[in-house]
Design brief:
- The protein is α+β, with helices and mostly antiparallel strands.
- Helix content is about 35%, strand content about 20%.
- It contains 8 helices and 14 strands.
- It has helices at about 15-35, 45-50, 60-75, 85-100, 105-110, 145-160, 250-265, 265-275; strands at about 5-10, 60, 120-125, 130, 165-170, 170-175, 185, 200-205, 210, 220, 225, 240-250, 280-285, 290-295.
- The chain has a 7-stranded antiparallel beta sheet, covered by helices on one side. A 3-stranded antiparallel beta sheet has the order 2-4-3, with no helix packed on it. The chain has a two-stranded antiparallel ribbon with strand order 7-8.
- Strand 3 (about 120-125) and strand 4 form a beta hairpin.
């Protein structure tokens, strides 16, 4: 899905390690060919081609139907701040960043009118999905990477790998720990910086951790910096300079909740985080200074200073 993919695993048998890693990458390839909107023949794009009132419902594979149901749950839980139906809008901004041409307000509104979770009908009996408006497109980029990382970890557990870390462009899911360590050490970058890290690192085991920000994907216009993370209400990328780190029990939740946190006010973020049993850290630059907001339990994941 246009992102680097890394697997670290430990086992006493090198043959088993190679076989397990091959199995992982085969699984990744199969899921990418289902979820990606970069591949014209992907199952997701074949569903989107059917968009329109008179289209026949699309019978989904188990993998696609599962992530669509989880996306619906994320939409409802996030009070609409995470929305995979924003595909026309996110594709517009993807093109704008590539061509360095800021879209007109009229064009943004036109694409935004094609979105709306109420326009996607999901039949839980037949596993069929229909998009009710012509031109609708789904974008799984804000949930698919963490979801794939979780599926890979699930697979590794079935082949009896107990210590592993999967990293999909910063969406990290891990089990166990490296030999001789208390857990996996995970660093967090400072907002707007590719190389500068927070002085303290996280120590993670049997959890997922994801950090979202605009250090790699953004667009500048009239003195404002627009993130690739789009506000579903306005159709524009958020302009606050912040990173969001989420620690959750699974990669799917960690992935989509970082996007929701980026859009939601801090009070609502705390309420939803509590209901999901996840921890979060928001690192924001205000007036040139770094400001931190976090859930109460996040501090328990900092690596102990020696």
């Amino acid at each position: 899905m246009g992102s680097p993919f890394t697997i670290i695993l430990y086992t006493a048998d090198s043959v088993e390690a190679v076989a397990s890693s091959i199995g992982c990458f085969n699984l990744v390839d199969s899921l990418v060919n289902i979820f990606s909107d970069y591949i014209d023949s992907s199952e997701l794009n074949r569903l989107c081609v059917r968009a329109g009132f008179n289209s026949k419902p699309f019978e989904c594979s188990f993998a696609l139907f599962d992530i669509l149901l989880q996306s619906k749950y994320a939409y409802e839980k996030s009070k609409g701040s995470f929305d995979i139906t924003l595909g026309p809008v996110t594709r517009l901004w993807r093109k704008a960043r590539k061509e360095k041409i800021f879209p007109s307000p009229e064009l943004v509104r036109e694409k935004l009118e094609l979105s709306g979770f109420n326009k996607m009908k999901i039949d839980t009996i037949t596993h069929a999905v229909s998009l009710q408006q012509t031109g609708m497109q789904l974008d799984l980029g804000g949930i698919g990477q963490g979801h794939i990382a979780q599926q890979v970890i699930n697979y590794l557990q079935t082949v009896h790998i107990e210590n592993a870390l999967v990293d999909v462009s910063g969406d990290i899911v891990c089990i166990g720990k490296p030999p001789g360590k208390k857990g996996w050490t995970v660093a967090i970058n400072i907002p707007e910086s590719k190389d500068e890290l927070l002085p303290r690192h996280l120590l993670i085991t049997d959890k997922a951790v994801t950090t979202s920000g605009d250090v790699y994907q953004y667009m500048e216009h009239d003195g404002k910096r627009y993130s690739h993370i789009v506000d579903p209400v306005t159709g524009y990328g958020i302009t606050s300079q912040k990173n969001v780190t989420v620690i959750a029990a699974d990669g799917t939740t960690a992935d989509w909740f970082t996007k929701a946190c980026s859009v939601l006010p801090i009070k609502e973020t705390k309420e939803i985080a509590t209901s999901l049993h996840v921890e979060f850290l928001i690192t924001e630059i205000k007036n040139g200074k770094i400001v931190f907001f976090s859930s109460k339990g996040f501090a328990g994941y900092w690596e102990t200073l020696k």
